[in-house]
Amino acid sequence: MNVYELYPDANQFRGFTVVKTENLSLESCFFRGTPLLNSWHSLHIEPVEQHVIESRKLSDFPAFFSMICPVFSKASVDVLQDILLENGEVLPLISSIGNYFAYNITCIADVLDAESSIIRNKNIEKHVFHSNKIRSLKIFKIPQTILVRAYVTDEFVDRVSVAKLTGFKFRFLWADS
């Protein structure tokens, strides 16, 4: 099993920004793994409109507040629905150009082997995971990087690849030997 860091391809595809802020609370944008569905107020988002960026295409996994608040298109939610619902909450967003959803990862797994990992100034330079704790995980966060990183394993990556979903980037971090 392999573990990857999940992030959007912001260099090739357009990202989104909030256009109406009346429902925006800072707390709603910082997903810490606690359920938000009952208190969720849909944010109004639109593609970033900057001269350089406008020529970029939309994707199934656009950049939005980095990985603090991952955003999925309806097509990606359809393909990944069982994985997403098992590990978090799919929260509706409002957009004039299509159906997009914020994703609150509620699967927070204490699976990092801190003694074997290389950590400097709270930055994890080399990830090592506990093999016996990671086997069933597909998409998750760890306590050490809960606000800035999301992790996925092979099943998630394979599903994205087979469906030819766009905008997903995966940085290889670790392999179970």
Structure explained in plain terms:
By secondary structure, this protein is of the alpha+beta class. The chain contains five helices and eleven strands. It has a four-stranded antiparallel beta sheet. It has a three-stranded antiparallel beta sheet with strand order 4-6-5, with helices on one face. β7 and β8 form a beta hairpin. α3 runs antiparallel to α5. The mean pLDDT is 89.
Please give the radius of gyration in angstroms.
16 Å
Reading side by side through the largest sheet, how are the strands ordered?
Answer: 9-10-1-11
What is the count of helical runs? 5
Q: What percent of the residues sit in helical stretches (DSSP H or I)? A: 10-25%
Please give the alpha-carbon distance between the first and last residues: 8 Å
Give the topology string: H per helix, E per strand: EEHEHEHEEEEHEEHE
Main sheet characteristics? 4 strands, antiparallel
Q: Low-confidence stretches at least 5 residues in length (pLDDT < 50)?
A: none
Backbone shape: globular
* Secondary-structure-derived class: alpha+beta
Number of strands: 11
Mean pLDDT: 89
Quote the beta fraction. Answer: 25-35%
From the structure above, extract its key features:
about 180 residues, alpha+beta, four-stranded antiparallel sheet, three-stranded antiparallel sheet, about 20% helix
